[in-house]
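cron nightly-structures :: item 1 of 1
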Amino acid sequence: MLRKKFADILHKIQQSSSCHQKYRHVLIKLYNESSFDDFECEFMRCTELLFGMEIKQKNIHAERSVEFLSSFVTTLVNSTLKKPGEDLSEDSDQDVEMHPFLNAVVNNVLQYQNLEQMSARYRCCQFINLLLRQLGDDAQIDMDIANLIQTAMLERIIDVKPNVRLQAVKVLARLQQPDNPDCPVIQAFLHRLYESSAQVRREVVESIALIPSIIPKIVERVRDSDPNVRLAAFRKCSLVGPKMITISNRQLVLDSGFTESNSSVKKFFLEDTLPKWLNVYNDDYLLLLKGLKLDAYEEDLKKTEVISRKVLEVFFKSKSLSLLEHLPIDENKLIPIERLSSETALFWCILAGFLRESDDNEEHLSEIMPELTHFCTFIEKYYNETKRKQLMEWQYLEYQQILCQLLKIVKEYDLSDEVGRQTIQKLLIYMLSDGKFNGCVITEIIFIMQKINPAMDSFTIQICHIVSDIHEPLTEQLPSPKTVYQTQFQLAELRVKINVLIDERDEAVANADYDRASVVKKQLIELNRQVEEINSAMTSQKMERNPRNDPETLCKCLNILIGLLSNPKLTVLTASLRSCKDEFIRPLLSNGDMEVYSKAFKCIALYCLLDKQLAQENLKRICLPIISYRLMPEYDKASLFIAIAAFSDVLRKYGTEIFNDVAENTVMSDTVSKRRLNGTRRLFTNTAKDDVDTSDIDMSGYESIIEILLDMLDDENQELREQSGMALCELVRHGIAVSPTLISRLILKWLNPLTEKHDQKLQQLLANALVFFARFVGDGDELLEKAVIPILTSLGNAPRTSPLADVDIDSALSFIAAITSIQKPVGFNNIHKNLAFAVCEKIAPRPDDKCVPLYVKMLLHLDPVLKDAVVVRELIDQAQLIIDELSDKFAKRNMQKFVHKLSEILADLERETVEPTIENSPLLQVLDTNREETAASEMRPRHSINESNLEPILKDIPTNNNNNLIQAKSNRVVILSNVRVDNILPNTSTFPKPTDESVTTDANVELSQKVNGCLPTPATDQNRVNGAHISNNAYVNMWKQNLLRSDKENDIRDEQTSKKETTNQVRKSLFTGVSNSVKRKKRRTRSSLHHTMHSDSDETILH
């Protein structure tokens, strides 16, 4: 009776969910009326039947049943518990008394969690999940039951099936203990964040408790490969808010959101995450920018500026005028210096740029932009006040950042006002000559000065004069003490003479000797003039140029030149720059200070990008730090980074031919030097950097330099790895100096687990470069094809101690298959077909090699586009030969799967091309008219076949010196010769024909590619006369003979002929290393087929 009632209830609740509430009460009433043991037994019998149901396809009836049974249990339990509003604080320290039926159900259901049947494990986890979820947010369960569930679900969270793991995660979400730092559930969730199933990762992100140690792990998921996981991570970041996230992770979240490719995820980020973050800072944009600021290094400031610009751009589009209210400017449209900070300066600069670019809000630009003269005065005042202060390192970086933003605001001005233009130019020259700035400020100053003076010749002369004034300023030359003493003595002597002459003049006047008085007066005038000249010479200051060769001054001059040479509008080398190089920069290459040397080296590298002649002259110097990396354990990191970037830029601008030119010049110079030496020997000296002998450096090729750069990818220095990877990626993106070795090494670096763990930036660079190379570079498909086998060989031969031994092989093969299947915008490349032949050729000589399982597994990941039945058969035959030689069971099984895949392709080709063609062939007309007679009698002659109907077919059959066996069977013709053909197509007049029995391999390959299942082209009359072995009449008789054969005889013949080698020359070229056992088997097959051919041929002719 109880079982019948259970069956009726379960039958009705499966039909609709609307009746669940009604039958829950019915079942509760039944529970109260029945004994506990009987009800429990019947309830568990229902769950046992339910758990044993297969779930390969979603069953809505089973889902409703599980939901109903779990909701019944929770309803029954909640009816006996305290109400949610009651105070449970008094009982908080006591064990919670659980409903006996709940304990019984949980204990019985958990017995299914470790069964082998996947459906039982899934339903068990699903039932417990629904049970805990429907208990309510304030529910409490017994500690023993909780531990029992937790232990079981911790086992299921590592289940082999992702659906089971997903349900286990949902169960464990209710069992987390955020207050416990060693909570096993949270630790298990952390491991599941990196698992293969995207659904499980998303559920973990949504369910995990938000504690400080977990937040960085959630932030990492905004870079997940699945968009649903990224969306869940952004939801969590919106919920947490920016103040619970570190500044670097805030920038990571924002950068990931702005670069998001999925539209729904990006929409949520822009419409939900950003407004919520701004709301945390009370809608204050300046506070938001301050919360995003990183100021430890100059690179951090640049990244902060980029992200801040993107954030403000989003808000500017929706509420542009509200941004103006947050700019703290006074009545003069200037920010007070005491309120000027990096955030306000950045906000001012970004806002001015937005208003300038916006057509609708350009009239508001005048509200925040002061007059240029006043703004110049403001910049000068801030500069003069700040330079006198003693600044710490972070304060100095902020000061440089503020100046940079103010100068960017200057670029927004029109500069058509002559007074304002002269004012800003005077200010910039003063700042450039007086201050010490970083590269960002110097670049902005150079840009504005070039905008004021667009003529490049006069502009470079102006900058070179500034550099000259800094390096050799005009200084006052003070007289020496000896000179001062001599001058004073001379003055004293002249004064004595003047006094004597005054006395003589007075005496002459007293004696009325006016002639004498006149002479003395002239002498006094002359002496007074000499005194005045000496006094004026002493008071006048002599100005001379005094060179300043201290490292600080030299670095300042070099920074200005680097800013000038880096200007993108400078495309030619002017005369002033040439003289500056010869007179100032080149001598500094022998300077002992490493910072001065590295900056001078960078100037030379920039010079090389402006003139090819200079590049040829200095190419050895550029490559010297890279070559020294291998030779010396200690190296100058700054110079090495400059050399790597310069090598990449020179190759991309001038091509690889520049190395050939340098090699030719080197040979000529060596010849001249040998003639000049005449048997002399140069003595050894301790040379400086400028005198390093680079004559022994082999510059005949760039391959050795690229090989060194590849070795740098494994260096312990992360900056060096990123710099070398960036240089190589730029070469790959431009398709310059790219080889299969380079591509294979880069792909292996991308696959390396250590790269994903420690070099995420390098991994992104490599991925972007490789995808761009495969999609857009002209010969990228050929180079990728040649790089695949070396990659597989390296992975297969990787020792246990190598990081490549930990590579996920399936993911690696999927990546290789994906990147080789990328199609270019124009044209079609079938790399997978070529790879299939290449891999088979690699396996054939050494079928017992340790890499063979990897090669065979690669074949399964390939998806070749095969439209030629002959090519498919060739591949099948080659695979069959390999299967016979393989000893590894795993590799043999995968090879058989590959053959099965090819067989399906061949069957599709035959259905698509063979059957429609045969319907239109003359032979089919003959066969259709006589099919009934053939079925009625095997040996009765078919008089309905006449030679006139066969003439179109017979003309298409070539005649050569080989004995051809023609077998006809209702719908197929097989030609056993140099080319095997299984199909008949009507038009065969365009195909080439063999004229000699020794057909070359290339001819066979070309013929195989053009045949597409058709008969070869008919032989000409000359060929038919020279090479005919069987006449047309004999062919007619042979057709009659073969058409009258029984199905059994034809099946036996097909089985024999299927073993024949097809396209012998092509296979010979591909399988030069086939083992002796395979060769013996082939010889036995050929001999048996040769015997069959001769016997059938003789029988046909005699008939």
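cron nightly-structures :: done
The first helix runs from residue 2 to 13.
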